[in-house]
Design a protein that fits this description.
Layout lengths: L1 E7 L7 E7 L6 E10 L2 H8 L6 E2 L3 E9 L11 E4 L8 H4 L9 H6 L10 E3 L2 E3 L12 E5 L3 E3 L6 H4 L5 H12 L7 E5 L3 H12 L4 E6 L2 H10 L3 E4 L6 H9 L3 E6 L4 H9 L1 E9 L11 H7 L2 E4 L7 H13 L9 E5 L3 H9 L5 E5 L3
Parallel strand pairs: 11-12, 11-14, 12-13, 14-15, 15-16, 17-18
Antiparallel strand pairs: 1-2, 1-4, 2-7, 3-5, 3-9, 3-18, 5-6, 6-10, 7-8
One zinc ion (ZN) binds next to loops.
Length: 364
C-alpha cells in the first residue's frame, strides 16, 4: 500500500513528506491509520543527529486499528489506540512491567528495524528505516508492534490523546511512579514544556504541598500556575533559582524533576534538595555537568535518570484519560495543532519554544 510519510534524511534539518510503500502486518503487528501524532523533543534530537537514514520518526501516534497480524488477540480492527514505547516482553525489566527499562530499549525503539533486521517501509524497492519506538508515526499509516498499542476510549478525539504516548506520560509518571511524590511533599520542576507541565498537573493530583515551576519563558510560567504550580521562578532574571527555592521552602524541596538539558538545571535541581531529597532527570545535559558529590553524600540525596516515567502504559494511560475526563488533568491545554504538511514549521516552533506540544493532524 502507498502512504504519505515524513522521511528524515542525512543532513536535512527537517523531515520531508514522501510517498512510501508499507507492508501488510506480520505476526504480532498491527496496521494503524494514524489520525494524529505528537512531536517530542526526542524526534527533533534524533532527526538532527547521525543515525539510520532514511528514517521515519514519530513516537506519539494515535489512530485506528485497520488490520491485525497473526497472534494479535487483544486488539481488533476499529479499535482506537495510542502508541507508546516498544519493549521485548521477556527481559528482567519487562517481566517486572518496567517496560521503559527493557534491556532491548535501544534497538527496539531507535534501531529502525524489526528484530529480524527487516523494515516495513520502502521507497522504490529501497529500504526506509521505520519502527521508531515500534511505530514511526509521522505517517498516514503505521505498521506497529502490537505491544506499543494501548486501547483507548473511542469517544475522545484521537488528536487529543496522541501526546499521552510519550511526553505527557513521562512527566506525570515521573511524579507518580519514579519520584513517588505524595501529600505534603514539595517538588521543584525545571522546564515548563510538555513534560514539565504534565509533571505540574500530576503533582497537583497527588496532593503535593508545594509545586515550584522554573522556566525562562513567562507565558509558560503563567500556564504552570494555572495548571497547579504554587510558585514560579523566571530563571531569566533569577540567576540562583536553587537559592530561591530553598528560601521558599526553608530546607529545600523533597523532590526535584529536571526536564531541561542545560547543565545549570542539573546543578540547581541538586542544590535545591532538602536532605534525603531526590532529583530526577529525563535527558542528558548538553554540556559538562559535575555533580557536587559532597552535597549528595552529606544529605543522603540522590540523582536518578527517568525514562517513560516508570509507567506501565497499558495501566497508566487509561488512568490519565479518566483524570482528563474529570477535569483534573487538562493536558489538552498544552497542545498546538498543525497539518501534517507543516511538520517543518512544527519542528521549528517546538525547538524555539513557541509550541509546547505540537500535534500533527494526518490527512485521511
Ligand atoms: Zn524487555
Ligand atoms: Zn518522546
Amino acid at each position: 500500500m502507498k502512504i504519505q510519510a515524513a522521511v528524515s534524511h542525512e543532513g536535512a534539518r527537517y523531515p520531508q513528506i514522501e510517498a512510501l510503500d508499507i507492508e501488510e502486518p506480520r505476526a504480532g503487528e498491527i496496521l494503524v491509520r494514524i489520525v494524529a501524532s505528537g512531536i517530542c523533543h526526542t524526534d527533533i534530537g534524533v532527526s538532527g543527529r547521525p543515525g539510520p537514514r532514511p528514517f521515519v520518526l514519530g513516537h506519539e501516534g494515535a489512530g485506528v486499528v485497520e488490520r491485525i497480524g497473526a497472534g494479535v488477540t487483544e486488539l481488533a480492527p476499529g479499535d482506537h489506540v495510542v502508541l507508546s514505547v516498544n519493549f521485548c516482553g521477556e527481559c528482567p525489566s519487562c517481566k517486572r512491567n518496567a517496560h521503559s527499562y527493557c534491556y532491548e530499549v535501544l534497538p527496539r525503539n531507535f534501531g529502525g528495524l524489526r528484530p529480524d533486521g527487516t523494515s516495513p517501509l520502502s521507497k522504490d524497492g529501497q529500504r526506509v528505516f521505520a519502527r521508531f519506538f515500534g511505530q514511526s508515526s509521522f505517517a498516514q499509516y503505521s505498521l506497529a508492534d502490537a505491544r506499543c498499542a494501548i486501547k483507548v476510549p473511542s469517544d475522545i478525539p484521537l488528536e487529543i490523546l496522541a501526546p499521552l504516548g510519550c511526553g505527557v506520560q513521562t512527566g506525570a509518571g515521573a511524579i507518580v511512579h519514579s519520584l513517588q511524590v505524595g501529600p505534603g511533599d514539595s517538588v521543584a520542576i525545571f522546564g515548563a514544556g510538555s513534560v514539565g507541565l504534565s509533571a505540574v498537573m500530576a503533582a497537583r493530583l497527588v496532593g503535593a504541598e508545594r509545586i515550584i515551576a522554573v522556566d525562562l519563558v513567562p507565558s509558560r510560567l503563567a500556564l504552570a500556575k494555572e495548571l497547579g504550580a504554587t510558585d514560579t521562578i523566571d530563571a531569566s532574571n533569577d540567576a540562583d533559582a536553587a537559592k530561591t527555592i530553598r528560601d521558599l521552602t526553608r530546607y529545600g524541596v523533597s523532590h526535584a524533576f529536571n526536564t531541561a538539558n542545560a547543565p545549570i538545571s542539573y546543578t540547581q535541581s541538586l542544590q535545591c534538595l532538602a536532605p534525603r531529597g531526590v532529583a530526577g532527570f529525563v535527558a542528558p545535559p548538553n554540556g559538562q555537568f559535575v555533580p557536587d558529590m559532597f552535597h549528595l553524600l552529606s544529605g543522603g540525596r540522590s540523582l536518578r535518570g527517568i525514562l517513560g516515567g516508570d509507567t506501565t502504559p497499558s495501566l497508566f494511560i487509561p488512568m490519565l484519560i479518566d483524570y482528563y475526563r474529570q477535569g483534573r488533568f487538562p493536558f489538552d491545554r498544552l497542545i498546538k495543532y498543525y497539518p501534517f504538511s507543516e511538520i517543518a514549521q512544527a519542528f521549528e516552533d517546538s525547538s524555539a519554544g513557541r509550541a509546547i506540544k505540537p500535534v500533527l493532524r494526518m490527512p485521511s
